[in-house]
Design goal:
By secondary structure, the protein is an alpha/beta fold. The protein is built from eleven helices and 14 strands. Helix 2 runs parallel beside helix 11.
Length: about 290
């Protein structure tokens, strides 16, 4: 890599930058902040929201916008101002929700409502796995539980978006029975950006549905253009990192990454538990 090139470095969080306790280590944090202060162009790209990503990266001081919700948003990590927004049209949100209902899947629906991020769900339809996910996020101001009367009204809604699809919908999260999620994934995948995978912490099957314009790869490209970078170097561990590896100039898979990512990686580096990202950057970042 030429020394005069302007390089953008982007890392995934869970399983990549974060340890198994869902936190960045003090050593990685200090190392990255030192490199950032010296001018390294660094950001992260995560399936997490800005709310939970800010918690798990506490102490990290990125100066570039960060990519959250799998590329749905490009956001200022300090002011939390939305720089780039990818969302569904009303018709798309209706189509996805109808498909999930046909497969007896009760989703968590993320939307911008009155200029605030909220996640909506019907309390009576929540399964234990989704309930655990919600419980860890109830205190960040996004929780929007809907009651049984709303559920009945929404199921009877014809051409309206329904109460669960209020606002500008940008994300569907589904956790539950693998067979149902796989069937919905197969039906929705041709029209939308869908990710089916098993969570690295709970090991529960997850289905996430986003607009086609929402992806880590797309957001990284926009970040690259915004800062006039010559090259992009990325780090990751999971299936949702494959598109950004394919779009980057170099992609480094963690030792703990899935085989499919290792197969397309420039190289495999040390694990997340051994601070592989920060160790590689301190030795190689230009």
């Amino acid at each position: 890599m030429k020394r005069n090139q302007k390089v953008l470095y982007v890392t995934d969080l869970d399983g990549t930058l974060l340890h198994h306790n869902e936190r960045i280590s003090a050593w990685s944090c200090d190392t990255l902040n030192g490199l950032i202060e010296k001018g390294m162009l660094f950001s992260y790209a995560t399936a997490r929201s800005i709310f939970t990503s800010s918690v798990v990266t506490e102490g990290l001081n990125p100066q570039l916008p960060v990519i959250v919700n799998n590329g749905s948003f490009l956001m200022n990590p300090h002011s939390r101002r939305r720089i780039l927004v990818n969302q569904f049209s009303r018709e798309e949100a209706q189509d996805i929700y109808a498909t999930l209902c046909r497969h007896q899947i009760a989703p968590l629906v993320d939307a911008i409502i009155d200029d605030r991020e909220r996640f909506s769900y019907f309390e009576e339809a929540v399964n234990p796995a989704l309930a655990e996910f919600i419980a860890g996020r109830k205190d960040d101001g996004r929780d929007n539980p809907l009651k049984s009367a709303d559920f009945r009204n929404d199921r009877n809604t014809d051409n309206d978006t329904g109460v669960i699809l209020r606002g500008d919908v940008f994300y569907f999260t589904c956790i539950g029975e693998e067979e149902k999620l796989r069937a919905a994934y197969a039906e929705l995948k041709p029209a939308y950006n869908c990710i089916f995978q098993f969570d690295i912490y709970s090991h529960e099957p997850w289905l996430e549905v986003m607009p086609h314009t929402a992806s880590k790869a797309h957001a990284i490209q926009q970040l690259k253009e915004l800062y006039n970078c010559d090259r992009v170097v990325v780090f990751g561990d999971g299936a949702n990192d494959i598109p950004m590896f394919e779009a980057a100039d170099e992609g480094y898979a963690m030792a703990n990454a899935i085989d499919a990512l290792k197969e397309i990686a420039t190289a495999v580096i040390d694990s997340n538990e051994n601070d592989g990202v920060a160790r590689w950057l301190i030795e190689n970042a230009v």
